[in-house]
Write a structure and sequence with these properties.
Elements (H helix, E strand, L loop, with lengths): L1 H31 L10 H55 L6 H22 L35 E4 L2 E3 L5 H5 E2 L2 E2 L5 E2 L2 E2 H12 L12 H48 L3 H26 L3 H5 L1
Antiparallel strand pairs: 1-2, 3-6, 4-5
Length: 306
């Protein structure tokens, strides 16, 4: 009888403690909005959550990099459009100079304007991007275009910006690729040979300001400037393709983030309606268990005999 009584009390205590703990856990889930608070709750789900949080952190970095790449590419596109405008102005000036009807003073004035175009192009090439780096600079840190009159061009590309696992995008181009016509691309991405657009324009400006100027010295100038404009357009198209890729990757990350958040919420967040119903059910069972325990524990041997 003693064993049976102790077993009865032990079982009742265990049952009520278990129900009370469950009710407390459910109340905590409702108040915090989180149903998965420890690995012991659901080890498999907890591991999935850890992976989701890691992937989210990585994608946050990639999203920031994509924003940087987008900014640099837009700035590059704007600068290349400005360069194209300057080359168009040079074309118009050379066309005027080739008419042969200008006097020496007017011709020298055109030469000075073209020299000013060269200076403007040099400034555009040496502009800084959103990161504070040379927009058309190389990986050696030197200016994109030398300002000592030699117009040496940065030629070795900088590293790409990481935008995903084993993925990167080259957000800028070197001055050599922008201002070299007919050059050969080497395996390291630098340009070998070809015509330096800035040096070519500078030579035109010098010729126009020379006292022994001859119209024949401009015979190939228009073709050279046209080729230079075509090269700039080619580079601009390449940047546009990369910008489109950045847009696609940004959209993909946005979609992935939404799917990942839905998965995380399903694993971690509390379904309030379901949990409230489960809490009410648990409290009902607990109340019934407590009432049953109180009634049974109050019975005596005379009650059993009756």
């Amino acid at each position: 009888m003693q064993i049976a009584t102790r077993l009865f009390y032990d079982r009742s205590t265990t049952a009520m403690n278990s129900l009370s703990a469950k009710a407390e856990a459910l109340q905590n889930q409702i108040s915090t909005g989180v149903k998965l608070t420890a690995p012991s709750s659901d080890s498999a789900a907890y591991q999935r959550l850890a992976g989701i949080k890691r992937d989210t952190a990585n994608d946050t970095v990639y999203a920031a990099n994509l924003g940087t790449a987008e900014s640099v590419l837009k700035q590059g596109d704007t600068s290349l459009s400005a360069i194209t405008d300057q080359l168009q102005s040079a074309t118009e000036l050379v066309t005027q100079a080739k008419t042969g009807t200008l006097n020496a003073a007017n011709r020298k004035a055109i030469g000075e304007q073209i020299a000013g175009i060269v200076a403007t192009l040099t400034n555009l090439a040496n502009a800084k991007d959103a990161r504070g780096q040379a927009l058309f600079g190389g990986s050696d840190g030197a200016p994109a275009v030398a300002t000592d009159g030699t117009y040496a061009l940065a030629a070795k590309p900088v590293s790409g910006i990481p935008i995903g696992d084993s993925q990167s995008v080259q957000a800028n181009e070197t001055a050599a690729r922008v201002f070299t016509v007919g050059g050969k691309t080497k395996p390291d991405g630098s340009i070998e040979g070809g015509t330096n657009t800035l040096a070519m324009l500078s030579a035109i400006a010098t010729a126009l300001q020379s006292d022994d100027f001859k119209t024949s010295s401009l015979d190939t100038s228009l073709a050279d400037i046209t080729a230079a404009s075509d090269q700039v357009s080619t580079v601009q198209a390449s940047l546009g393709a990369r910008a489109a890729r950045v847009d696609l990757e940004t959209s993909r990350l946005t979609d992935v983030a939404a799917d990942r958040e839905a998965t995380r919420s399903g694993l971690e967040d509390t379904d309030i309606t379901t949990t409230v119903v489960e809490l009410q059910k648990t409290m009902t069972i607990l109340s019934a268990t407590q009432a049953s325990f109180s009634k049974l524990s109050a019975l005596s041997l005379f009650d059993y005999l009756r």
